[in-house]
Please model this.
Amino acid sequence: MNAGQSASFRRLFDEVGPVDAVGIEERVAKYTTRSIKKSAKLWGLKTAVTMVDLTTLEGKDTPGKVASLCQKALHPSDDSTVPPVAAVCVYPAMVRHARRALGPGAKVRIASVATAFPSGQTALVTRLAEVRRAVADGADEIDMVINRGAFLAGEFAEVQDEIAAVVAACGAATLKVILEVSELETYDKIRAASFLAMSVIRPGDFIKTSTGKTTLNATLGNNQVMLEAIRDFYLDTGTAIAMKPAGGIRTAKQALQFLIAVKETLGDAWLNNKRYRFGASSLLNDLLRQIEKERTGAYQAPYYFSEAAESY
Model:
């Protein structure tokens, strides 16, 4: 990092405030010691189901696979008390097939990764065209990746201008801004990137940890840094921004720990799928197993529930 980049980051860190990394790690360690029992646990498990973005992002995706995913999203379990998930997430080329499979008025939303996911390494005009096409084909939500190269170079105005252009291209669709935390390297940079994004997106839009395509994805630590950024931004501006940890959350136990973090940092107003999501489709079956355990006292084998697509 050259002197100009260092100065840019120092100014930004001074503006948004630094992160106490030791304090973050101590706080999230306490979340793993919480015990949730009986009705509260069942409520947490079913709430987590409603927050899942059920995802398939593979080169071998087909209309049939997407249709199957949509049915799983609408009816995760034979237990009628288990609610639908929040959304299905697919590549832009698959949006129209998801729209056809879900039909009009579906409770499950359609999300699409765009802006040259996961790298973001194409011209802005191409990235914006991809967003507009996905929305035109029926996407309710767009998951974009920020320009990490520009951010790490200290070109913060460029990062914000590109996010603002995607906001405009989304129209009425909800936007989720992926920071790709593993490439930002430090908690201070994750907090700074969160504020840059929140300053140009709309109330109800999301900031999101990861694409799920790197070695480090969502952790309780980086989730906490972003939750606290959302809290501080809300206290400063009154604007409520939503949050999505993505990748690496595979068990119901982990999901409950993330929900504890939300409740203790942001409060009950964020404990719904309009303000919090899990980008972790492989989580769904473990949630269903734990719900069945709470209902019957017995675990089902993992293969009892149909397989969901891989997480991202």
